[in-house]
């Protein structure tokens, strides 16, 4: 329930897209003009393993769901038309969205095509979208000598952002308000008064920071601070990077983003002579035994529960993606840009989604704990909303969640057995366990 009067202190855990944009939106909302705003992160900004920090993220309104398509379209306009997208932070390269006919992903692409056509008709930009009815026409538009899938479309109004640069820009805007206190500290648990009332957080050195409202926006780590089992889980996604020469980058400078919704594999045009090949998939789980953060069952075993939590290069600097994932990226590179087929991957990364069963964000008050708000569940598609999601989150904090997202972002009453995102956009196999896949083979 929204607090009345407005909280005198709001503490946000996590300075990714969800946390940082919330901080900015709070500074812009007169209701919170007198509120002290604290923004905590376990890493100095920009968090090297945060989902929001990377060389690139796709910016598209190409969604099979109408509400997300409309919100993404508003975000896309901000990327295109405001300073956020200037100075190379946003590139409208076009997006080729494909699938294999009759297989997983085709329905998503068809729904998405319908939605972007309707959005473009509203804006008088019908010519931006063109259906690609066979592999030949896909390859022609991609222009790299390769392609993927056998049906899809190109949307010339979509593109990609330099993710880290976008976050740095927003961070500076937040700094410039002079309203937000950035604190480098790792939250270890919520602090409660009695069983239900959250009064702050405890950080790694044992000290306690108090607040009237705690917002958990810790991305894929959120499930370590509050029990999200059956509602959200961390899944590890595979990223690989190829170093290019200046001439090779130039050769690819006009390529669109290419995303195959059947396999989840995609390539984003290069920048700074680095090309990214990655997979939007069900991902790997990293089951971890932790103390029940909700502390409900007081058992002699210390109430241990198992949740999937991120394992990143910050925890383990030698971490390299499992062979299974690297092979999938290799196959994509071979297919999509054949002349780079055997170029070694210079780097790889596991990046963690906060996944929910339907790919909906989780932006809601916790139903049991007072003064606790959750803003996570990015489900692998949250970055593009950087210019608009903070305002949505603050509306939800104020009890004015946008009508079309009220149900989607609410706390699901019934947890599912295993969270597997079934929004029709994922490739790969569900349920892979990171440790097992690493044991089967990895470069390091
Ligand atoms: C590989 C990959 C590809 C993606 N591609 C796209 C794309 O093309 N387009 C798109 O729109 N979206 C994409 N996404 C999704 C998008 O990046 C995420 O939805 C979004 O960045 C999530 O933001 P967040 O703030 O929830 O999480 P994060 O950015 O992960 O932020 C969470 C923050 O919390 C901090 N934290 C964690 N635990 C603690 C703690 N205990 N105490 C203090 N701080 C803590 C972390 O350090 C981190 O900075 C992709 C994501 C990944 C991983």
Written overview of the protein:
- The chain is α/β, with parallel strands linked by helices and 444 residues long.
- The chain is built from nine helices and 24 strands.
- It has helices spanning 17-28, 66-81, 106-122, 135-142, 163-177, 246-251, 323-336, 389-397, 434-440, and strands spanning 9-13, 36-41, 57-59, 90-91, 95-99, 129-132, 151-155, 159-161, 180-184, 187-193, 197-203, 208-210, 213-216, 233-243, 257-260, 265-271, 274-279, 284-285, 287-291, 304-308, 347-355, 362-365, 372-376, 432-433.
- The longest helix has 17 residues, at 106-122.
- The structure holds flavin-adenine dinucleotide.
- This is FAD dependent oxidoreductase domain-containing protein.
- Belongs to the MSOX/MTOX family.
- Residues 10-394 form the FAD dependent oxidoreductase domain.
Could you tell me the strand content as a percent range? 25-35%
Shape: globular
Number of helices: 9
The helix/strand class is alpha/beta
Q: What is the oligomer described by this structure?
A: single chain
Topology at a glance:
Blueprint: E1 9-13, H1 17-28, E2 36-41, E3 57-59, H2 66-81, E4 90-91, E5 95-99, H3 106-122, E6 129-132, H4 135-142, E7 151-155, E8 159-161, H5 163-177, E9 180-184, E10 187-193, E11 197-203, E12 208-210, E13 213-216, E14 233-243, H6 246-251, E15 257-260, E16 265-271, E17 274-279, E18 284-285, E19 287-291, E20 304-308, H7 323-336, E21 347-355, E22 362-365, E23 372-376, H8 389-397, E24 432-433, H9 434-440
Parallel strand pairs: 1-2, 1-13, 2-9, 5-15, 13-23, 18-24
Antiparallel strand pairs: 3-8, 4-8, 5-7, 6-7, 10-11, 11-12, 14-17, 14-21, 15-16, 16-17, 19-20, 22-23
Helix pairs in contact: 1-5, 1-8, 2-3
The chain binds flavin-adenine dinucleotide.
Flavin-adenine dinucleotide binds next to helix 1, strand 2, strand 3, strand 14 and strand 21.
């Amino acid at each position: 329930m929204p607090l009345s009067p407005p909280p005198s202190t709001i503490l946000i855990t996590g300075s990714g897209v969800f946390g940082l944009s919330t901080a900015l939106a709070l500074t812009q909302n007169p209701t919170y003009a007198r509120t002290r705003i604290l923004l905590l992160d376990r890493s100095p900004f920009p968090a090297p393993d945060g989902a929001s920090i990377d060389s690139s993220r796709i910016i598209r309104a190409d969604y099979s769901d109408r509400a997300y398509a409309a919100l993404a379209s508003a975000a896309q306009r901000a990327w295109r038309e405001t300073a956020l997208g200037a100075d190379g932070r946003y590139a409208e390269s076009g997006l080729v969205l494909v699938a294999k006919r009759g297989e997983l992903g085709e329905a998503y692409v068809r729904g998405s095509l319908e939605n972007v056509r309707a959005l473009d008709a509203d804006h008088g930009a019908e010519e931006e979208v063109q259906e690609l009815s066979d592999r030949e026409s896909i390859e022609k538009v991609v222009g790299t000598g390769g392609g993927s899938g056998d049906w899809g479309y190109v949307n010339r109004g979509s593109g990609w952002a330099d993710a880290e640069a976008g976050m740095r820009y927003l961070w500076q805007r937040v700094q410039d308000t002079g309203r937000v206190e950035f604190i480098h500290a790792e939250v270890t648990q919520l602090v409660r008064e009695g069983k239900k009332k959250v009064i702050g957080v405890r950080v790694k050195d044992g000290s306690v920071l108090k607040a009237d409202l705690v917002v958990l926006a810790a991305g894929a780590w959120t499930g370590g601070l509050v029990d999200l089992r059956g509602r959200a889980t961390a899944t590890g996604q595979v990223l690989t990077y190829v170093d290019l020469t200046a001439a090779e980058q130039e050769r690819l400078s006009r390529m669109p983003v290419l995303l195959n919704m059947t396999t989840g594999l995609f390539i984003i045009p290069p920048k700074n002579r680095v090309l990214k090949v990655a997979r939007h998939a069900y991902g790997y789980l990293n089951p971890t035994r932790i103390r029940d953060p909700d502390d409900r069952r007081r058992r002699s075993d210390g109430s241990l529960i198992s949740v999937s939590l991120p394992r990143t290069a910050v925890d383990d600097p030698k971490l390299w993606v499992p062979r299974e994932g690297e092979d999938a990226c290799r196959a994509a590179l071979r297919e999509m840009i054949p002349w780079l087929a055997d170029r070694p991957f210079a780097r790889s990364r596991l990046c963690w989604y906060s996944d929910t069963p339907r790919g909906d964000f989780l932006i809601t008050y916790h139903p049991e704990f007072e003064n606790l708000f959750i803003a996570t569940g990015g489900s692998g598609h949250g970055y593009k909303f950087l210019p608009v999601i903070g305002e949505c989150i603050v509306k939800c904090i104020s009890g004015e969640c946008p009508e079309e997202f009220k149900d989607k972002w609410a706390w699901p009453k019934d947890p599912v057995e295993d969270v597997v995102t079934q929004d029709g956009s994922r490739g790969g196999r569900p349920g892979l366990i990171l440790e097992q896949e690493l044991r089967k083979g990895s470069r390091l």
